[in-house]
Design brief:
Order of helices and strands: HHHHHEHEHHHHEHEEH
Shape: globular
Structural class: mainly alpha
Radius of gyration: 22 Å
Keywords: Pyridoxal phosphate
Largest sheet: 3 strands, antiparallel
Number of strands: 5
Number of helices: 12
Bound molecules: pyridoxal-5'-phosphate
Length: 292
């Protein structure tokens, strides 16, 4: 049996990191939520694909890539429980949000609702869209965002020919799903480990800092691979002394810089609701010690 087969969930953490990922040993990757990471097996698969394309570019680009791309769409659609026609590949999350936003038809009086903690690039796209469309309002104080898709077939057609770019990341989807199933033990095992690590790691860090993790009244905010932990900083909300609220963004920047320079990690932060919160991502290559 190859060494990467049959990995048990119990070995998630440092063992998984050492065997399957290519992180710098001195770096603690706590920000999976921003850019993700891929196992070395998938990296090797991608590089082999690139070599094959380079060796016979015309037949690959005309015949093989469209076929492999379709396999990837089927794989992603099955994993997500989506219609194949609704699944297309774009280079990053910002392009995806822009693509959906710019293809929606707004009518007078519509309001675009979004999280007040929205990723900056997406918030800008929302405001740009509202500016382009007359009489469309934006509102940022709710906990959700609606989305609409076009009818079957047409959406996928728009992405059939994305000109000449390196599409190998998209073509790796079936291999990546196979890795998640065969090596990691499936989606449930991955989710179980990551959810628990996010919860326990967040609590552990909050205990060290003497603070708390972010939670809602239904106690459901923690059911994901993230945890948000409050930093022990007092801000001058309601004139109780402490740091000025306007300094919040500078404090966030300073904290993130220090995390990188002194602790060799990157932890995105946000000044929100009168406090600085840091977001830590739990993944199969991390353990509780990484959070502490
Ligand atoms: C929450 C979140 N989403 C997405 C991204 C990355 O966006 P993109 O894939 O468009 O580069 C980041 C990057 O920092 C992020 O923090």
């Amino acid at each position: 049996m190859p060494s990467h087969m049959g990995l048990e969930a119990t070995t998630f953490g440092q063992g998984t990191r050492d065997e399957h990922f290519a992180f710098d040993p001195a770096y603690t990757p706590l920000n999976h939520g921003s850019y993700g990471a891929f196992p070395t097996a998938i990296r090797n698969h991608q590089r082999a694909l690139q070599d094959r394309i380079e060796a016979r570019s015309d037949p690959y680009i005309r015949f093989t890539i469209p076929e492999l791309l379709q396999r990837s769409r089927i794989g992603a659609a099955t994993l997500l429980g989506a219609f194949i026609d609704d699944v297309v590949f774009v280079p990053n999350a910002t392009t995806a949000v822009n693509t959906v936003l710019r293809n929606l038809r707004f009518i007078e009086g519509d309001t675009i609702l979004y999280f007040c903690t929205a990723y900056g690039a997406c918030e800008k796209a929302i405001h740009f869209e509202a500016k382009m469309e007359d009489n469309v309002d934006t509102k940022d104080d709710i906990d959700g965002m609606s989305s609409v898709t076009q009818g079957p077939g047409r959406f996928g057609d728009l992405f059939k020919w994305a000109a000449t770019i390196d599409q190998t990341p998209y073509l790796c989807v079936p291999e990546a799903i196979k890795f998640r199933t065969d090596v990691c033990g499936g989606e449930d095992k991955i989710r179980y480990y990551c959810f628990n690590l996010a919860r326990d790691g967040g609590h552990s860090l909050a205990k060290i800092l003497g603070t708390e993790t972010m939670q809602n009244s239904e106690d459901t905010l923690g059911q994901c691979c993230f945890t948000n932990v409050r930093l022990p900083l007092l801000f001058n909300t309601e004139r109780r002394g402490g740091l000025e609220c306007a300094e919040g963004p500078d404090v966030v920047k300073w904290t993130m810089d220090r995390a990188l320079c002194e602790f060799n990690t990157w932890i995105p932060g946000k000044y929100y609701a009168g406090a600085v919160w840091v977001r830590l991502s739990a993944q199969i290559y991390l353990g509780i010690k990484d959070f502490e």
